[in-house]
Structures are given as structure tokens and as C-alpha cells.
Amino acid sequence: ATTGSGYFEVQILSLTNNRGTLVDGRCCGGGSISDIGGRNHFPPCSKTCTTAFWLCLKEYQSNVTAIGSCSFGNVSSHALGQNTFTLAEPVTLQLHFTFRWT
């Protein structure tokens, strides 16, 4: 058997979320997508988002989804800003991993 270990890191410096929406398209603080004439309509969002990041490390996926377990771990940031921000110093999310091949 062979083992290997290391760190997977992501550095976050800025984010732009012009509409102020969640990953599923809903407005932060409530609101929903409405269907007008068979097309999704996204009303303007009135509340700002409080933005944090979640890093989930899993095996390769041809279609990436947020569904399912994080095979190799996950980590979250604290709230970093609102809809759009640039940090003076990057925030690093770090996951330690260990793999074993047999």
C-alpha cells in the first residue's frame, strides 16, 4: 500500500454577486423565482447577502453538483463581506488530505 498526503488550498480575494442571490437563484433574505410566460423571472433583490464560502473536496465529477458527501473533507469560512467585496488580504481555505492506494 502507498499513502500520500498534502493540502488543498483556495485563496479568496474578491467576489462579485451583482444580483444579491443565493446559489439557487433566490434572493438573500427571501424571495423566489417567478414564472412569467414559461420563463423564469428574477425580481430585483432588496436585501444584501452575507457571504461565506464552503469548500467541499470530492472525487472528479463531469457535472459538478453541491449534492452528496465531501469524500475528502470540507471547510467553511466566516462571513467575509456582502454582495460584492475585495479583501485587503486573501482568506485561505485549507483542507488536509491523506490518500491510501492499495
Describe what you observe in this structure.
The protein has 102 residues and is mostly beta strands. It has one domain (2-101): Immunoglobulin-like (Sandwich), CATH 2.60.40.3510. The chain is built from no helices and 6 strands. The protein has strands at residues 2-16, 34-36, 39-41, 54-56, 74-76, 84-101. It has a two-stranded antiparallel ribbon with strand order 1-6. It is flat. 2% of the residues are buried.
Précis, in short:
The chain is an all-beta fold and 102 residues long. The protein contains no helices and six strands. It has strands spanning 2-16, 34-36, 39-41, 54-56, 74-76, 84-101.
List keywords for this structure.
two-stranded antiparallel sheet, Immunoglobulin-like, mainly beta, flat, 44% strand, repeat, 102 residues
Structural class of the helices, strands and pairings? mainly beta
Number of helices: 0
Biggest sheet, strands in spatial order?
1-6
Q: Ranges with pLDDT <50 over ≥5 residues?
A: none
CATH topology: Immunoglobulin-like
- Helical content class: under 10%
End-to-end C-alpha gap: 4 Å
- Principal-axis shape equals flat
**Tally of DSSP β-strands:** 6
Protein name: Notch ligand N-terminal domain-containing protein
Keywords: EGF-like domain, Membrane, Repeat, Transmembrane, Transmembrane helix
Pfam families: MNNL (PF07657)
GO cellular component, one term: membrane
